[in-house]
Amino acid sequence: MPYLNHHDSWLYYEVHGNGPPVVLLHGVGGNHASWFHQVAAWRSEFTVILIDARGFGKSTDAEVAGRSEFTNDLVAVLDELDLQRVAFVAQSMGAGTAIDFTCRFPERVSSLLIVDSLVGIQLPEPIASQMSEVQRAAGGLSQAERVLGKSYLSESPAMTELYLQIAGFNTYTVKTLNGVQTSYSPQQIAASGARIGFVVGDEDVLFPASIVSDVCKHFPRAELITLHGAGHSAYFERPDAFNARVGAWLRKGLAAT
């Protein structure tokens, strides 16, 4: 699988399948390997692009730039692949990169699906204060309790271990990741013209479904997909439901273009 030399770092990416391009951007607990369920489900109808953010999976971060270079890295990979317009499925940390790219290069984004995340969004009050309380409450949880729902933790101990092992190949964790990214208001993001949607697990303790629902209402015509029995990593915990509903959302966007 290919690497792209960008400045002094190496960016790892994979391309699977054929069809309209869909870029999957992982969270802090993930990397390219986390998306195996989606690759298998979607490669027959989409070109699925997986990109390891610098310092995650097989990508390096020689500059120790962290998230400050995530969007520039994304531009470099998409240019290397000669992809002028893509759809994003962006989970947790990945949403910050997808939103920044969308607002900087709106002509290159057809659809933006924000998955279990509000990263990259300037939250209005009282939502911002509510999220501060949520973050404080989550501070004492273990990593598994943060990223996976209580149902999945109970029923899938082996897959829980796999999730944590995949994350173990990352250089960065949520506590060590550095750098900054620009955040945007809902109005700025909507002004990009990209079709926007949200996915949330109803057991997500980091970005609760009720708060994500309130934020979604600030985006005209945005669709909210709620997945039952899933926590912060809905794509991993409930892959069949995730793949079916997100796949349908992506197809709907293609039909409208």
User: What's the gyration radius in Å?
Assistant: 17 Å
The SSE order reads EEEHEHEHEHHHHHEHEHH
DSSP helix count?
11
> Which structural class matches the secondary elements?
alpha/beta
Describe the 3D structure.
- By secondary structure, this protein is α/β, with parallel strands linked by helices.
- The chain has a single domain (3-255), classed as Rossmann fold (3-Layer(aba) Sandwich).
- Helix content is 39%, strand content 18%.
- It has eleven helices and eight strands.
- The chain has helices at residues 36-42, 70-80, 93-104, 127-138, 143-147, 150-155, 157-167, 186-190, 209-216, 234-237, 239-256; strands at 3-6, 9-16, 21-25, 47-51, 86-91, 109-115, 195-201, 223-227.
- Strand 3 (21-25), helix 1 and strand 4 form a beta-alpha-beta unit.
- Helix 2 packs across helix 3.
- It starts with a strand and ends with a helix.
- It holds the Pfam family Abhydrolase_1.
- This is AB hydrolase superfamily protein YdjP.
- One of its GO terms (molecular function) is hydrolase activity.
- InterPro entries: AB_hydrolase (IPR050471), AB_hydrolase_1 (IPR000073), AB_hydrolase_fold (IPR029058).
- Residues 20-122 form the AB hydrolase-1 domain.
